[in-house]
Design brief:
Blueprint lengths: L13 H6 L2 E2 L6 E2 L4 H10 L9 H22 L6 H13 L2 E5 L5 E5 L4 H17 L5 E4 L8 E4 L11 H18 L6
Antiparallel strand pairs: 1-2, 3-4, 5-6
Helix pairs in contact: 3-4, 3-5, 4-5
Bound molecules: zinc ion.
Amino acid sequence: MRAGFPDFRLGNVLATSFTGTLSERFGDSVERIPVPRRLIDWLAVYGLTVDSCTPEQLDLARQLRESIHAAATAAALRETLPAAAVRIIGDRSIEGRAAAILTPEGERRWRLGSASVEDALGVIAADAVDVISGERDGKLALCASATCRAAFFDTSQSRTRKWCDMNTCGNRQKKARFNAGRGRGEGPR
Ligand SMILES: [Zn+2]
């Protein structure tokens, strides 16, 4: 981890983990990819290794991120998808060149055409298309935290997940409930 920068929140779903690089959108928001170097770091965690990143490419990434956020939020609310967001997701998907490679161990690896940020964003955009279109098994939902409201992909059996992340939003809510209970002279529930 690099000193001075906010930690990443890493989830299992590429597209919604990417939208999670900006958290607390409705509170004191935290930008987790504040500089190009941090986008390179984040992409590497997900096996999308790029050579370099310019400030313009970081802008492109953030534009895709907010487009995925907007489209996924609309999908979770069963509203009409915002046209501008849909167009940007499509553009990034078209412009990225990447191939899925099977390793001898049977794992998937991404091979980016020119190891560029655009190639990596193409993979993320395609993942967003899968998730938002309902091609993948799971359900888009919004985090119950009022300051977060992040769109997440619920793959639990019951599809009743409430929080984008149990370790952050879920935990905070649990603690708040616990403290409120104590305030009223009740034990923890
Ligand atoms: Zn949340």
